[in-house]
Amino acid sequence: MTLRFADESAPSTPLHLVSQNELESWRETLDKTASGWLDRLAFGAALGETALLPTGDGAIAVAGYGTEQARRRDRFHIATVAGKLPAGTYELCTSMPQTVLEECALGWLLAGYSFERYKAKPAPQAWLKAPTGIDATRTEAIANGEALTRDLINTPSNDMGPEELEQAARALAEIHGARVSVTCGDDLLSEGFPLIHAVGRASPRAPRLIDLTHGTEGPSLTLVGKGVCFDTGGLNLKPGASMGLMKKDMGGAATVLGLASMILSLGLKLRLRVLIPAVENSVSGNAFRPQDVLPSRKGLSVEINNTDAEGRLVLADALALACEEDPDCLISMATLTGAARVAVGPDIAPFYSTDERFASALAASAARVADPVWRLPFYEPYEAMIEPAVADLDNAPKGGMAGSITAALFLRRFAEGARSYNHFDIYGWQPTAAPARPVGGVGQGARAILEALPEILGL
């Protein structure tokens, strides 16, 4: 779906955002009828509280609450108000600082998202006019990049396999004049992507490596996204409870495509490359097995100790390819480990970085745009945990300790030599409804990266 602000010429209802310390002064601006309704409703300007007040001419004045302090506990709190309003067009009236106003505007757009592919008709919507002073074009580009990510994750796997993920990349490329090449099926072996082929070969839906490029000038940015369109666990079959959400295992691919959409829509002057190893990890007679030792594009051999640790395998070949062009900045995003969720929960995107400049810029930008991240270490003493006796690397170290870190260390082996390698172990799913984030697929880290790019790449 497309998220946008209301037409500026449309008639609108004023929406007053009133903090508790502004309540009395705002009350004094109301006519007697509206003020009386305010009393009857016992409106106290609590977070998310709304009051629909009829004015003397029969129109509606709406009051809500939003402050910088509330943002600490509830990102996009304005979205709570937006979800309670009747269909119509609204215009913000507030003395909020510019940074908070920007978050309010984005939160409102994101609150308008719903996954409508299988619905008979969309729900009615409360529209917002772009608040004065914000960059409406940028805000819409960010919201629609996030909507793309959500749509891709939310689509069930019967309609979102490797081929459909390729089609999504091609559709994005067509809009922005980008180029796409795809290596598919057994061609993966002849072209040097044995790990991608091994993971995807058991499915009747052919595995592939999707390669999108755009731009010939400026610094280079390569995004690598895990595109496991469904993960049964392979021969190490997942239990039913663990398999239920595995349509979201291509959340890394969905997130890098959403970020690419933002970058392309905003016309950033850089050389962009997006690599997506797209597979389905299935079970059949030719599935890869525990204890197999597989080659990789980089030349490192990998012992398979769990076929359910497949995401790092497909990323490994893609990272090796990415490093052959020596990009200025290399980022991988993947729904990679349950260990990351145990460490920081579903709302925070943990990341790893070899680049102090990237890490500091990202932390600052994440705070500015309310897109939480947390840095975890490439802890080198754990390197021995990913070194088995019979191969160069182990895809699933025994013991279950430091699972996110050892996965990140595994990936770093395939990004050695990169000027700046940064890995995000995201969840990609909103388990409970929150302001501007309904239950379902969600982007993580993309807005923070976008905000940090000018500093990271010198744009």
From TrEMBL:
GO molecular function: manganese ion binding; metalloaminopeptidase activity
PROSITE patterns: CYTOSOL_AP
Top-level lineage group: Bacteria
Domain Cytosol aminopeptidase intervals: 306-313
UniProt cross-references to SUPFAM superfamilies, sorted A to Z: Macro domain-like (SSF52949), Zn-dependent exopeptidases (SSF53187)
Entries under InterPro entries matching the protein: Leucine_aapep/pepB (IPR011356), Macro_dom-like (IPR043472), Peptidase_M17_C (IPR000819), Peptidase_M17_N_1 (IPR048816)
GO biological-process terms attached to the record: proteolysis
Sequence similarity: Belongs to the peptidase M17 family.
PANTHER family named in the record: LEUCINE AMINOPEPTIDASE-RELATED (PTHR11963), PEPTIDASE B (PTHR11963:SF20)
Name of the protein this chain belongs to: Leucyl aminopeptidase
Taxonomic source organism: Aliiruegeria lutimaris
